[in-house]
Amino acid sequence: MSERFDRAWFVEVSAALVISLAAAMTSWVGFQAALWDGEQASHYAQAGAARAEATAAVSAGGQLQTADLLMFQGWLNAAAQDEPALQAFYRQRFRPEFATAFEAWTRTEPLTDPAAPASPFVMPEYRSARLDQAQRLQKHADEQFAQGQRANDIGDRFVRATVLLAVALFFGGIGQTFKSITIKGVLVALAFLVCLASGLLVAKLPILELKFF
């Protein structure tokens, strides 16, 4: 009788400990899942903002390139009509970015050398700060999106851990409804094993700290 009582007491205490452990782990794992969801949302928001800025930069860069093209066409027409004053007029109004490429292009003697580059726009010196900015912003957006995807994956793993812990709580709780000590012991052992599996899964995941400021 004493042995049976000791066994029953051990099973009951073990069940209480396992249920308490599973409940505590569920709270903590759920908290981590929520933090990683917030991390994911933050990275996605930054990616979206960077993409919007990149789009605006591309639009502005395209408008500036169109302006460069119109000014260059005006200069070509003036050159074709042999009007030095009008050529100088356009040349003085080139944007600095285009002027650098234009000067490099004129040094190739394009009006007399058939092998010269077709226009300043194909010269290595022709750069657009706005388009370069757009590329940097797009790269930043891609990096932020990738980090958001990583945060989403980690958050999903924490959620899977909470599902396992829910199973552990189920085994530990339902075991209390049986009178058989053997059945209770088996269910408590299963609950412990599921808790252990959840703990091993979580142990491999990075942890986020709550930021108050």
What is the number of helical segments per DSSP (H or I, 4+ residues)?
5
How is the quaternary structure best described? single chain
Quick check: average pLDDT? 87
Radius of gyration: 35 Å
Hey, roughly how much beta strand do the residues contain?
under 5%
Please describe what this structure looks like:
The protein is an all-alpha fold and 213 residues long. The chain has one domain (2-203). It is built from five helices and no strands. It has helices at residues 2-80, 84-92, 96-106, 129-174, 181-203. The longest helix has 79 residues, at 2-80. The chain is rod-shaped and about 110 Å long.
Give the SSE map:
Blueprint (H helix, E strand, L loop, with lengths): L1 H79 L3 H9 L3 H11 L22 H46 L6 H23 L10
Helix pairs in contact: 1-2, 1-4, 1-5, 4-5
Provide the descriptors you would attach to this structure in a database record.
single chain, 213 residues, mainly alpha, 5 helices
